[in-house]
Every structure is written in structure tokens, then in C-alpha cells.
Amino acid sequence: MTDSTQQLLEKAQAAAEAARHLAEQAQHYSDELAHTAAAAAAHGLAGGAIDPFVFRVAIFAMAVFVGYYVVWSVTPALHTPLMSVTNAISSVIIVGALLAAGVEGMTAAEASGSWWANAFGFIAVILASVNIFGGFLVTERMLSMYKKKG
Amino acid sequence: MSANIAALLYLVAGVLFIFALRGLSSPATSREGNRYGMIGMAIAVATTLLTHFPSFGGLLMIVIGVAIGGGAGAFIAQRVPMTKMPELVAGFHALVGLAAVLVAAGAFFAPRAFGIGDANEIHAGSLVEMSLGAAIGAITFTGSIIAFLKLSERMTGKPILLPERHTINIMLGVSLLALTALFVGTQSGVWLLLLILASFALGVTLIIPIGGADMPVVVSMLNSYSGWAAAGIGFTLGNLALIITGALVGSSGAILSYIMCKGMNRSFISVILGGFGGEVAGPAGGKETRNVKQGSAEDAAYIMQNAGKIIIVPGYGMAVAQAQHALREMADILKKEGVDIKYAIHPVAGRMPGHMNVLLAEANVPYDEVFELEDINSEFGQADVAFVIGANDVTNPAAKTDKTSAIYGMPILDVEKAKTVLFLKRGMGSGYAGVENELFFRANTMMLFGDAKKTVESIVKSLAH
């Protein structure tokens, strides 16, 4: 009995030793990492901040995974409404159209550019609105038809 | 409103869009989901208008634009018949694609408003994102128009094979890369314009060789493209709502394409390469001379009245004939007489994913009577009647037995296991895959030729007697 306790103790000690070793290594790596990161920041990235682009890519990647799992859980009976509602929500591109349609040229040089932007934005607002209203309403119309027995 | 709050609001909109899709996991929660989607859209639009308050003229244009577009959209949504949903969805994809192209062009002309640099000094990264959004949007636009024309039968559903089409596509693809590089390098709008034009051309050449039977894959694929185009623009704008939505829609379309390909046992690549269903495939053997057993509506009514269990298999032919309402009426009479009625839907029945389910729902068929292939296929053995209305290839046993058949390996509905198979067809023609259906010649099969709607209506009349 005491024998096995002894063994356990030794094992625990060995494990603790290994953990301490790992921690030291981790400390070492993190120091190095911080060092490289700081160097990278000093090199190019303004103020040591991560470029917002990286965050956007991260969000994009996460959203692809979320989309993957959410869409697999959609019942096949609702695949047509799924297409029409994805259609409607992808028309959130209207936010870009609103920017372009509402822009005002501050300088004379910008005026002609903003005229084009307004024209393109105006058409894009129309197209996206067709989709938003059409997409959500036709989805609503379809979904209201799905009824249970009785 | 600070930029941080705006970013958070866009994030909220993106999350609401996720809930919109999440709601579709069951018909019971789906309408609530759709509402979340609308709220998300309202938040995104309001946030943009509050953070970038437009000039008076701009605001006026926006109001007019939303009124015109929204009015047209609402009108279409109310009026479109459910059988035309595939065309409608293809048409809507085209609009998203074109909107993406226009927004990219708008960003190029007014970079400061989009926060991507000054005129002629746009950040290189933004130029790449803009090119991606514009190119994918342009491909989506023309591709969807072709799909729309094919689905609405304004253009032949048969594959149109250009000579050297693969070479043309590869050359167009390479030129897209070159034009993107030139555009990013020189910041000249000419290259952007050429890039868009080349993408328009590629959209056409990609879709015209694809036949009518493969349209479910094409529609899903274009759905996916419209998402990636939105994501590309989302990166240009640094807008979280657009990035999240683009990713959601992109993966949604990709998954639907995968499900459709699996439903036909074809690889995505072979669908995209096109040409399927053009020439008549399958075992050659000259003209078919065997006799089929032809029946009347009265015969069919008699058989079904005496049946205990009937499984109805709808296909594209039901949509064409608009027979869903008459079909439900027939089912109601039979149910009153104590017959057990179920519906079996093949994943690629119709012209888009879930097409048949919507039509049956429109005709007030309760959704708990409608089953997917894997859930009902084992029940055909106990069914007295399999009532096949406007479907063909998805019931063809050659898919299981004939290795030379064009549809070999495709999962099919085992209608041949039912005691009697009733086939409603316009004529003896083969299905879209151009394959003869062995089932027509079997002893337990009865053919009912003619317009599906009229045939079902006469069955209803006979049942009422």
C-alpha cells in the first residue's frame, strides 16, 4: 500500500517537473512571439495595431462555418424559401449603393467622379430594393403556405 | 454615431441574418426567422444612412430609388405564380450581381466616401477586393440571365455547345486575372470596365452549355456566386453585415449545389462542364416497339379507391401542368374514403431545390404528409399504388441496374416496388436525361397520357361518382 503511494508520489513529482519545464518553454516562446510581434508592429503596422483586414478575414471565415452548419440544418422542404431569403439578405449590398448614391464631391476634381458614383448608386439602390422587398415578401408568402395537418 | 457603434450595429444585422436562416430548420419557426431578416436589413440601412448622411439630392434619389425598386419588388412578390419560382430566383440573382458591379464602380468613382483612399490613390487591397466583387457580380448577372431565359423557356433548355468552349472559358478566366492585375497596377477605370465586360462574357459561356435538367445545380451555384460577390464588396467597404451575409449566402448556395449534385449522382465539375442531356444516351436499340398498358381516368380512380395506401410522386411535369390543386382535391376525396396518402419528393424533382414542396404547400397539402426520398423509400413496398405525376428519370430503375445508363448511380424513388404504378405523362418521350424508362413496359404499370391537370381532374370526377 505504502509502496504504491510512494510510486504515485514519484509520478506526481515527475509530472510537476514536466509541467514546469513546459511552462518555461511556453514562457520562452511567448517572449519570442511578443518580440516578433513588436518587431512586426514597429516595422509596418501603424501603432502596433492589427490591420482591420485581418479581423474581417477572421469574421468572414467564421461566418462561412456558421453558414455551413446553419444551412445543413435547414429542412429540405424549405430549400426554395432558403434560396429566396438568401437572395433577400444578400441585397444588404444596398449599403454600398446608399453610400454611392448619397456622395457629394467636395472639390471640383471630385465632382465628376461623384456624379458617376451617384448614377451607379441610384441604379444599384433600385435593383437592391427590388430584391429586398421582392425577396422577403415572396419568402413570407411561401412560408405562410406551409401548414400542418388538420 | 461613432464608427464603433456602427460596426456593432452591422454585426447585429449580420447575426439577425443568421437567425433568419436558422428559422428555416422547421416550417414552424420559419416565418419568425424571416422577420429577423427584415429587421436586420432595416438596421443595416438605417445605420448606413445615419453614419453617412447623404446630401439632400442624394437622399431624394435614395427615396425615389427605394420607392421604385421596392414597389416593383413587392408587386412581383405578390403576383408571381409559385410554379415560376425558379425563374424568379434566377432573376433576383441577376439583380444582386448587377448591383455588386454597380457598387464596385461607384466605389471606384468616389473612393473617399467608401473610406478606401483618395481618387487615383485607392489602396491596392481595396482595388483587388473591388475587382473580385465586380467580376463575380458580373458573372452572376449574365449567368443568371441565361438561367432565367432557359427556365422560362425563352431559350432552349437544351445545352448550347460552342466550339472550343473550354478553351474560350479558360482564356476568359486568364484574361480576368490579367485585367485585375492591370487595374490594380494602373488604377485606370478602363481596365475595370474591360474586366467587367470579360466577366459578363464568361457568365454567358459558363451557363449556356448546361441543360435544363441541371438547372437546380445552376440556380444553387449562382446563389452561391451572388453571396461571394456581396462578400467581395463587403471587404471593400469593411462592412461586417455584408461580409457575414456574403459568407452565409455563399456557403448556402454551395451546400445546395452539393445536395443537388448528390441527388443526381453527378460531380459538380461534370455539371459545370455542361453538355448533359443533349444527345440521347443509354443503350441504343433502335425505336422502341414494345407495348405499354394504357389506362383511362376511370381505371385509375377504381384502382385508387380500392387501395389502402397511395404514395404520390410529383415531378416537373406537375409544375408545368399546374396540377397541384387538382391533385390535392383528388387526395382529399381518397382520404375521406380511408386511403392513406403520402407524398414522396426526390431532391432534384423540379427546377430548383425544394420546388415541389412549395407547390404542394401552395395547394394546401400539409407538410407532414410530404416526405424526402430517404424517409419514404422503404415504404413503397407496402404501398398499393405509386401515383407518378410528371416525374420520370427520378423513378427509373435503370439508375440501379444499367451501368451504361446516363443516370446510373443516381438515387431513385423505388416506385416499382408498389403493387401498381400509375404514370401520368404527356407522351411516351423519355425524360430530360434522354433515357428510356423500363418501368413503362412492366405488367403492373399503367400509363395515363395527356395533360396532368386534365387527367387528375377527370380522376376526381370519376371518384365523385
TrEMBL record, chain A:
<keyword id="KW-0520">NAD</keyword>
<keyword id="KW-1003">Cell membrane</keyword>
<dbReference type="GO" id="GO:0008750">
    <property type="term" value="F:proton-translocating NAD(P)+ transhydrogenase activity"/>
</dbReference>
<keyword id="KW-1133">Transmembrane helix</keyword>
<keyword id="KW-0472">Membrane</keyword>
<feature type="transmembrane region" description="Helical">
    <location>
        <begin position="115"/>
        <end position="139"/>
    </location>
</feature>
<dbReference type="GO" id="GO:0006740">
    <property type="term" value="P:NADPH regeneration"/>
</dbReference>
<protein>
    <recommendedName>
        <fullName>proton-translocating NAD(P)(+) transhydrogenase</fullName>
        <ecNumber>7.1.1.1</ecNumber>
    </recommendedName>
</protein>
<feature type="transmembrane region" description="Helical">
    <location>
        <begin position="84"/>
        <end position="103"/>
    </location>
</feature>
<keyword id="KW-0812">Transmembrane</keyword>
<feature type="transmembrane region" description="Helical">
    <location>
        <begin position="53"/>
        <end position="72"/>
    </location>
</feature>
<dbReference type="InterPro" id="IPR024605">
    <property type="entry name" value="NADP_transhyd_a_C"/>
</dbReference>
<dbReference type="GO" id="GO:0005886">
    <property type="term" value="C:plasma membrane"/>
</dbReference>
<feature type="domain" description="NAD(P) transhydrogenase alpha subunit C-terminal">
    <location>
        <begin position="57"/>
        <end position="148"/>
    </location>
</feature>
<dbReference type="GO" id="GO:0050661">
    <property type="term" value="F:NADP binding"/>
</dbReference>
<keyword id="KW-0997">Cell inner membrane</keyword>
<comment type="function">
    <text>The transhydrogenation between NADH and NADP is coupled to respiration and ATP hydrolysis and functions as a proton pump across the membrane.</text>
</comment>
<dbReference type="Pfam" id="PF12769">
    <property type="entry name" value="PNTB_4TM"/>
</dbReference>
<keyword id="KW-1278">Translocase</keyword>
<keyword id="KW-0521">NADP</keyword>
